[in-house]
Structures are given as C-alpha cells and as structure tokens.
Hints:
Blueprint: E1 8-10, E2 16-18, H1 22-44, E3 47-57, E4 63-67, E5 71-77, H2 78-86, E6 89-92, E7 101-104, E8 110-111, E9 117-118, E10 125-130
Parallel strand pairs: 3-6
Antiparallel strand pairs: 1-2, 3-5, 4-10, 5-9, 6-8, 7-10
Amino acid sequence: MNNKNTEAMTVEHGEYAVRHSRKRDIIAAVIxxxxxxxxxxxxxxxxxTAHVPLEMSGRxxxxxxxxxxxxLEVAGTVVSLKSAQREAIVVKIPAEANAxxxxxxxxxxxxxxxxxxxxxxPELTLTVSQK
Length: 131
C-alpha cells in the first residue's frame, strides 16, 4: 500500500483513487517548460513585416515640413520588429530642402532601426512650405 508508483488503488466502495508520483509530475512540468521555450524561440525568430513610423530630423523653424507617408513597411525577425516599432525611421531633411517646394527623399536620407530592412524602395516626397 505504501508503494508510490502504484497507479490506482482499490477503495472499499469499488471506486478508484489515482495516485501520481511527484517525480513524474516534475519531469512533465520540465518537459512542458522546455517545449514552451522552444516554441517561443521559433516564433520570435520568424521573419515578418510591420509598419514603422517616420520621424524628421534637421528641421528649420521657418518652414513647415510634410512627408508623403507617415510610416514605411520594413521586414525582419519578430524580435527586431518589436524593438523597431518602439523607435522610428529617422528622415534627415536634405540640405537642398531650404526653400519652399517638393523634394525627393532618397535611401541616404533614411536611418533605419537596427535589424530591419525596407521591403520596397520608398517613393517619399517632402513638401516644404513657408510658415
């Protein structure tokens, strides 16, 4: 009766009381944790896409600047995308954009967060107007 590995023991009324070994429960819990960790690592390293907001730098207070888009689509691992969405893609205002008009933004004017890349070449324009 004191055997801990007994699966079931008979009770007076014909019912069964199931007894489990603690060692078996601990092993099952460890296996579940390892499996959950492996699944989490696989999911976090899958490639995906997301939209990251744009932020301008190098503004002149005498002008108002408007970009043609508010965000760009980037690709990377889920971990990289989560950190990139907390940051922003920095758009440096070109040196030639010192007068009212419309200017094309090139890849050299963009600073992407680490671990992500653009999914397509952007066709960004910057409209500058006098305040």
